[in-house]
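The instructor's notes for this session suggest beginning with a concrete chain rather than abstract definitions. Hand out the sequence below and ask the class to guess, before any prediction is shown, which regions might be ordered.
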Amino acid sequence: MLVPAVASAQSANLPEKVKAAGAITVGIESTYPPMAYKDPKTNERIGVNIDLVESIAKELGVKVKWEEMSFEQLMTSLTTGRIDMIGTAISDLPSRREKLTFVDYLVTGSQPFTVTSKKDSIKTEADLCGKTVGAPRTTNYFPVLQAWSEKNCVAAGKPAASVNGTAGATATRLDLKQGRLDAAVLGPEYVAYLMADEPNTYVLAGEPLTKTLFGFAFNKNDAALRDAVAAALTATIKSGAYKQALQKFGLERQAVTDVKIDAGT
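After discussion, reveal the predicted structure:
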């Protein structure tokens, strides 16, 4: 679905609640670099999503009121009206569109990777069969990995991957480094961050198991705010602010050329 035509981001029809507040309340979970995380030196919240949301708010002429919470709280907070928008990196999936609607802004997927000491035994995604592979249990990576193992390992007469649900991306990284996992599956953006943060520590294990889109999420009944944000995001692409945010964190290859709504698969 293409973004509705809007004359300009500045003239976008913001809901009265946002206009009256002069701010958009955005739920964020800041433990997923490079999308949103705390700078270890300053404890300041930084990341691609932080820069993009701030740029969007500037186009809309409002401020951002960040609400820090766990990933599990985000969707409930949105549907109950505690927040206006989810600014955390969240995959636009058909199953989530029963209650949510998305402005898609980045290509992502489910990228398997391992540590360099296992690079000879785990070279491609096919080598995950029979291995212990981890993914955060609260994300879509976990069921994707389970389904992939059933289709590509079990159905092919190979031993299933032993899929471990971890407590999050940081826990996945630690479990992999400490040998509790043979490999892991996370978003390509986080894997790129890890490889830059700890050179010569991690290697890709083949191609992504799936590809989809990250989207800024809104209550399904709040199409007006969704469309206003979509128009503002389009303006950031045209101005170059979008490209600048992605380049800052090395994610140029995951850029979208135009903004779409509810286009994730």
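Then share the key points. Residues 14 and 117 are 52 Å apart (CA to CA). The chain has eight helices and 14 strands.
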